[in-house]
Specification:
By secondary structure, the chain is an alpha/beta fold. It has helices spanning 2-7, 53-58, 69-74, 81-94, 109-122, 139-154, 166-172, and strands spanning 18-20, 23-25, 38-40, 127-131, 158-162, 175-180, 183-189. Helix 5 runs parallel beside helix 6 (139-154). The longest helix has 16 residues, at 139-154.
Length: 191
């Protein structure tokens, strides 16, 4: 989790540099990652309980803009037909219609993660950092998240997953790395 925080600008790095396609990336705040089409999810999803599931998802279309909480809450009131089409496309792609009518405040921990992942996918990320995607999830929710991540990966999104569930990560990742004694070590390569 700390590594994701550093790579996404939530925590300032004391040394080192990040490169994307051999170009240095300087990030001092999380919102700056959007200019590179890089986003993240959180171990504890950041869902707005006062918004519906579709309203929470539509915010993903605007996530690259630095907006106040009030502005984010007003976004669902100002969407156009293209935004709604994109929302329907995401709901269809991930087969999440069964939870769209559930009030956000009633979501289980896994449903919150599913909606957060759906919201991020609305931004069409090139790279997605995912922190503990299945912690607190039921087996069904875990399977749904696995399916969503595999679809994102198949569509070309690079996934950087931090998780303690090695079996889950092995099902998704091509390359596995471990952090051991403050050093990054390469594990196995599935291909």
């Amino acid at each position: 989790s700390t590594l994701i925080d550093v790579l996404t600008g939530m925590t300032e790095a004391t040394s080192g540099q990040m490169f994307i396609n051999n170009a240095p990336v300087k990030v001092h705040a999380m919102h700056e990652m959007a200019q590179y089409d890089i986003y993240r999810t959180f171990q504890n999803p950041r869902i707005y309980d006062e918004l519906s599931a579709p309203e929470n998802m539509i915010i993903g279309k605007f996530i690259s803009q630095r907006l106040s909480l009030l502005q984010k809450l007003l976004i669902p009131k100002s969407v156009d037909v293209h935004d709604l089409k994109d929302l329907c496309d995401v709901a269809n792609r991930f087969a999440i219609h069964n939870i769209l009518d559930t009030p956000s405040c009633d979501f289980s921990p896994g449903q919150r993660k599913i909606i957060e992942l759906s919201r991020i996918s609305m931004a069409m990320p090139r790279i997605l950092f995912i922190d503990e995607p299945t912690s607190g999830c039921s087996p069904e929710e875990k399977e749904k998240i696995r399916s969503m991540l595999l679809k994102l990966r198949a569509e070309g999104t690079g996934l950087f997953i931090v998780d303690h569930d090695k079996n889950f990560v092995n099902e998704i990742a091509d390359y596995i790395y471990y952090i051991c004694s403050a050093k990054i070590e390469r594990g196995h390569n599935k291909t």
